Amino acid sequence: MLGPVILAASRSDRMRRLISAAPVTKQVVDRFIPGESVADIVPIVQDLTARGLELTMDVVGEDITTPEQAAAARDAYLALIDRLKDLELGERVEMSVKLSMFGQALEGGHELALANVRPVVEAAAAIGTTVTLDAEDHTTLDSMFAIHEELRRDFPQTGCVIQAYLFRTEADARRLAAAGSRVRLVKGAYKEPAEVAYQQKHEIDKAYVRILRILMEGEGYPMVGSHDPRLISIAQELAHRAGRKPDEYEFQMLYGIRGDEHLRLAAEGHRMRVYTAYGTDWYGYFMRRLAEKPANLRFFLRSMVSKG
Q1: Among residues 58, 134, 172, 205, which one is catalytic?
Q2: Could you read off the pLDDT of 58-97 as tens digits, one per residue?
Q3: Which residues, listed in sequence order, are joined to residue 132 by a DSSP beta bridge?
């Protein structure tokens, strides 16, 4: 399987330098990450919302080694929120954050990440939107869920992400599928050991359906993070069986992948949110997109050959 190899490469400084230096890389990266600054991304936000889509914005960057870098990540999100306020798009655009960017892996990281993310959540609420805490590797999840619980005391609309490939996730879903909760379900994009995660695609797909059923039958707000046509159809059927209206759940897909499907679902009356990343520290995010789906890797390799 190529996925684990690519994920290993995502942690290699040598591979980072090699791929970053390739002339074609920026052209391919732009497919998934359409800008480096707030100014770059504004036209994308305006275009997608004008087409009936909603967004969740991710300022990419994960290699945080100092408290100052964590504070800079916080400030980048605050600048984004200020711009969304000016555009009057708060109700259409939310934020996705990785707590690693806010210092979670540093000494005293749990408290530092909470202190940095709280003003972002507060500012988002002030313009009528919210924040979803992205899931990272399994060693970070207890901290992420504890921060999520703490934030929800004052900002109950704060969302979180769960990953279908982890054995623990069915229990997490039952705990989270409560009134007022917002939970995004994804398959998972980190290399995890067999002791904690399913390794085969068919096992992950079956777990995804089991967990999605828990969320649809619960009292919270499920967010279906998948590009898989079969899983999208299953999600619609599970929502129908659970008596959910189209505004009582949503689909989420990545910018640059299946754009026509984004528009089709929105045109059919579904809530469709596009996960849109931007920023200069794109490498880790880009490599996980390649690892998630062979078609993405083929696209990259074809581009390198054709432009070489």
Answers
A1: 134
A2: 998 767 899 999 999 999 999 999 999 999 888 899 999 9
A3: 96, 159
94 in helix, strand or coil?
strand
Q: What is the CA radius of gyration of the chain?
A: 18
In sequence order, which residues have a C-beta less than 8 Å from that of residue 253 and are 6 or more positions away? Answer: 225, 226, 227, 261, 262, 272, 273, 274, 275
Active site residue 75: no
Query: Do 283 and 16 contact (CB within 8 A), yes or no?
Result: yes
**Which of 41, 55, 37, 151 lies closest to 102, judged by CA?**
151
Task: Name the residue with tokens 């290399």.
Answer: 191
To the query of whether residue 184 is one of the catalytic residues in this protein, the response is yes
pLDDT tens for each residue of 123-152: 999 999 999 999 999 999 999 999 999 999
Instruction: Please identify which of the residues 184, 273, 288, 289 carries the catalytic annotation.
Output: 184
Give pTM, 2 decimals.
0.87
Two tokens, residue 111: 């408290």
